[in-house]
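dumping this here so i dont lose it again. seq + smiles for copper (II) ion
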Amino acid sequence: MVLLHGLAVLYTTHVALEVLNVAIVVFIAGAAMHSATVSSRNLYTSNLYLELVWLLTPTAMVTMLVVRVVVMQCSEEELQLHGTQVHVVANQWYWVYYVDAVSLFLYAVQEHDMHHGDLRLLCGMQSLLIDSSCSVLLALTSSDVIHAWALPSLGMKVDCVPGRANTATLVSSVTGTLYGQCSEVCGALHGYMPLCMVTV
Ligand SMILES: [Cu+2]
């Protein structure tokens, strides 16, 4: 909610600045045309106050943008700090989720264990349960080679790189079972790394 409010404020600011930009362009063009007359040339070529306006107006606009960006970043950090944190470690060829003190090992369901209606290579032995009313901060890494944690239905794809932790904020407005897969070729069983997530 804080992030959405920040985005709305940022959009409003950009629209206001665009209108201001157009007004400045029109003003400067008009002033330039007017200054073409000999009688007013001195006003626009050696006017200290006009120079100050031209200097301070862009400075104020850039300052407004910087302030808005800082507010946005602070809002996003606040959103992340209040959400659930999940650590994801990719391995050849399974996922491990660490949620608080619980570890979840996600393997693909073997074909002889599948039930009617199960999606081949998309169903996992376990599913990560997510509350759709909360944001989830994901910290993703890998223990061996590069993998990619991809959930197309939420438009998410994050690389899992050994020795590096990439972060992403997951906000799901839909409920149900979401499926994804590893999206970086990581070895012989790359196709056997499904992501199965249940949002309630
Ligand atoms: Cu893979």
